[in-house]
Design brief:
Layout (H helix, E strand, L loop, with lengths): L12 E4 L25 H13 L4 E4 L10 H10 L3 E6 L8 H7 L2 E5 L4 H8 L4 H15 L4 E8 L7 H11 L3 E6 L15 H7 L5 H15 L1 H6 L6 H15 L12 H4 E4 L4 E3 L8 E2 H4 L2 H5 L2 H8 L7 H4 L18
Parallel strand pairs: 1-2, 1-7, 2-3, 3-4, 4-5, 5-6
Antiparallel strand pairs: 7-8, 8-9
Amino acid sequence: MLARTDPVAELPIVILYPHSRCNCRCVMCDIWQVTTKREIAAGDLGRWLPEWRRLGVRRVVLSGGEPLMHSAWWELCGPLHDAGIGVTLLSTGLLLKRHAGNIARFCDDVVVSLDGPRDVHNRIRNVPRAYQKLAEGVAALRAAAPEIRISGRCTVQRANYGSLRATVLAARDLGLDRISFLAVDVSSEAFNRPGGWPAGRAGEVALGRDDLPLLADELAALERERAADFASGFIAESPAKLRRRLHQYFAALLGQGDFSPNDCNAPWVSTVIETDGTVRPCFFQPPLGNVHRAGSLEAVLNSPEALRWRRGLDTHRDAICRKCVCSLALRAQDEVVPAV
């Protein structure tokens, strides 16, 4: 991994929330309940960009919510593109068709949410024709930019853990380049959950004790039946990593063993900037400050409080890090594209 250097002098990745809302109503996320329409202005990004270049930002990830709901998201991407900074779009897929031309022009790669085969995906997304719109969007983007990399990310939870093999087939049918699996987060305040979920709500989404043997069977069948997809990298994780990331994680939530240790350098090599300027070290940890109030990103990242927090952070012991479903272990030789 890249060294955990303080103060932060180089920041390869910025994760940016251009827009505060979402166009899905997923069972595992509460961002769709946000009622305020807030977005980052192109003028804000114009002021930030010189500092980002000094910090060596090489990749900006547009996250959300749904970034394509921003009233002029391409006005954010244009200056990044001109500065030679790569742009990764994370999307629900519902608006890909409408924006295919600008995505082809301004984005280097796209990661879409794929919760399973058609019926499972539609049920989890909780919006009409979600899978069909995703399929139409991927097709439109392929027509506009045949070489663009489009990956899928599946959040594994109670409603879809038995459909991992079917999800891989769906990713193939959609024409995706890759599919990744991660476990649902049920313990943090991320995704518009101030104070976190109550135990009852978390229990509706996470796996129960009786689900664990079935998940183990599904993972074994996935390894057996889709060996070529593991070997080619179409499935991003190895079978062993999926067992740690999924089965071990859900078992640990139930008190059956420990969480797999997370080797992560996200707070030293990346940052998250939300629509109101709030700066976090990652998706899940508490804020470090606000870029508007501090006057610059570096002032937030290298404040005495932020330095003290990072120096005291042990990702193997920290309660939030131990349960993290989306860690980052960026190495010097890595292409700066967040793994899916």
